[in-house]
């Protein structure tokens, strides 16, 4: 559990245990996920939300935003006051002096503000007192693209400009962000690129792909994953064909018309527009897993271990543990953007968990203090790795942890003294030294001890074994070669004796 989470848990009562976001003192109840019994399969969880779930009605207010490269992006607002009174056409939107916290929603691939899960999220958060703004990707949300560039999982420029615009326009309102699927990858990558320079004070990433190179291999590995690959590939193909007349850099439209998987789309479209040589290079560059360590704001990451689209193998477990700002919550079930709960399947658990998490952050002053203190939080581990070895090899061949921290050196020294109370080995300043045993002081001229004989032998073997990678194999071959004749001779004598006794017994009348 991260240090930031411990601090928040102590004052604000939030904790995440086994995929359970628990909030005490600030809200009633806990966010324990219990999936709908008749949606026990991850595929049912994933498909039900897209095909059969009743979509809630959301009366968005649209704001047109222009990027620096001439692109037009639709920002769809759902204010807290809009769900409490009748919607009025042509209202002025959110006042610039409004202090209501704002949540920026970044949808997934080919999704927009009208997607079912986006409306679930927007309506739930708005009823909880937030102002929600959905940032539709380029060419989505009913608008055509106005530049020769499409969005991709690694394109963070649009999000960066939108966040700067929201922070400038609504300077008194705390700004949070929620990313789903591809939007989660964009959000985490943006937070890693910006570090402490972002206006975001808290974020949630839902079902992030994390590593596209592993994800591409996963989605083609089994027959049950291939329909998702085909559906997403065809959806992306239809998306780019809508803007064929505005994309002059795409010339091989014959190959584009045959796209039926994600990799084909990335080969003929994404790599061409983003100027990448190969698809694998593109996947390595746009993956957010390498940016997790640089995140400097509180970030909750929710993933289902049975996600049929984004494999659990892509989750950067070690990076999430190493960064104290990141809280990783995984559930055994849930599918991709599913987590449908209740007998009537009317609610999404990850929406409720995100609401509780951001509610605690908004009511806590730790988020602002932590953001300032985290400027160099990851510099020390990097320096210690660069300036010191990872391990220390003692004279008896044992491997112990080694650190530049004085306290660690004291601990290692004490541990070595305790372990070697009978061997006369001590560690001073990271070096191994041999000394007579303080407890049993023998004259070295007198009867030699077993340790006095074995330690030089161990040292010789250790030095010999560290000469090269083949030394141990050489020693093993020498040992086998030397002992094989002796074992063969003993085996031959025993067999000969047994044969002689048997023949004698037969001759006996």
From TrEMBL:
SUPFAM superfamilies linked to this entry: alpha/beta-Hydrolases
Keywords: Membrane, Transmembrane, Transmembrane helix
Serine aminopeptidase S33 domain sequence ranges: 102-312
Presence of the UniProt keyword Repressor in the record: no
Keyword Membrane among record annotations: yes
Family stated for the protein in its record: Belongs to the AB hydrolase superfamily. AB hydrolase 4 family.
Name of protein: Serine aminopeptidase S33 domain-containing protein
């Amino acid at each position: 559990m991260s240090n930031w989470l411990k601090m928040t848990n102590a004052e604000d009562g939030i904790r995440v245990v086994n995929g359970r976001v628990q909030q005490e003192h600030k809200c009633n109840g806990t966010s324990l996920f219990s999936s709908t019994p008749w949606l026990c399969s991850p595929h049912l969880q994933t498909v039900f939300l897209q095909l059969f779930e009743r979509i809630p009605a959301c009366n968005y207010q649209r704001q047109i935003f222009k990027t620096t490269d001439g692109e037009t992006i639709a920002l769809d607002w759902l204010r807290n006051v809009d769900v409490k009174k009748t919607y009025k056409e042509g209202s002025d939107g959110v006042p610039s002096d409004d202090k209501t916290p704002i949540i920026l929603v970044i949808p997934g691939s080919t999704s927009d503000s009208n997607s079912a899960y986006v409306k679930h999220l927007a309506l739930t958060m708005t009823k909880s007192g937030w102002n929600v703004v959905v940032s539709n990707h380029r060419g989505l949300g009913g608008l055509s693209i106005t530049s020769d560039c499409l969005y991709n999982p690694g394109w963070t420029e649009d999000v960066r400009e939108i966040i700067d615009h929201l922070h400038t326009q609504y300077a008194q309102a705390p700004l949070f962000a929620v990313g789903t699927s591809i939007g989660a990858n964009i959000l985490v990558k943006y937070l890693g690129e910006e570090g402490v320079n972002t206006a975001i004070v808290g974020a949630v990433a839902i079902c992030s792909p994390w590593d596209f190179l592993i994800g591409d291999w996963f989605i083609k590995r089994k027959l049950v994953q291939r329909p998702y690959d085909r559906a997403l590939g065809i959806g992306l193909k239809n998306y780019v064909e809508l803007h064929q007349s505005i994309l002059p850099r795409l010339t091989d439209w014959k190959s584009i018309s045959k796209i039926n998987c994600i990799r084909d789309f990335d080969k003929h479209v994404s790599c061409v527009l983003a100027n990448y040589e190969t698809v694998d290079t593109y996947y390595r560059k746009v993956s957010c897993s390498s940016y997790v360590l640089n995140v400097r704001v509180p970030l909750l990451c929710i993933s289902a271990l049975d996600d049929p689209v984004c494999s659990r193998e892509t989750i950067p477990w070690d990076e999430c543990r190493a960064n104290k700002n990141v809280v990783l919550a995984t559930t055994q079930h849930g599918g991709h953007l599913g987590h449908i709960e209740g007998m009537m399947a009317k609610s999404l658990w990850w929406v409720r968990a995100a609401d509780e998490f951001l509610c605690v952050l908004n009511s806590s002053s730790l988020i602002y203090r932590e953001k300032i203190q985290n400027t160099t939080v990851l510099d020390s581990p990097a320096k210690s790795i660069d300036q010191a070895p990872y391990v220390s090899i003692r004279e008896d061949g044992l491997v112990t942890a080694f650190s530049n921290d004085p306290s660690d050196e004291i601990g290692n020294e004490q541990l070595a003294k305790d372990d070697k109370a009978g061997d006369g080995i001590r560690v001073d300043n990271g070096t191994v030294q041999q000394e007579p045993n303080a407890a049993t002081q023998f004259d070295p001229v007198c009867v030699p001890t077993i340790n006095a004989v074995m330690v030089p032998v161990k040292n010789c073997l250790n030095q010999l074994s560290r000469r090269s990678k083949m030394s141990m194999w050489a020693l093993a071959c020498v040992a086998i070669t030397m002992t094989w004749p002796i074992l063969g001779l003993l085996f031959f004598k025993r067999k000969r004796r047994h044969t002689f006794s048997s023949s004698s017994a037969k001759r006996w009348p």
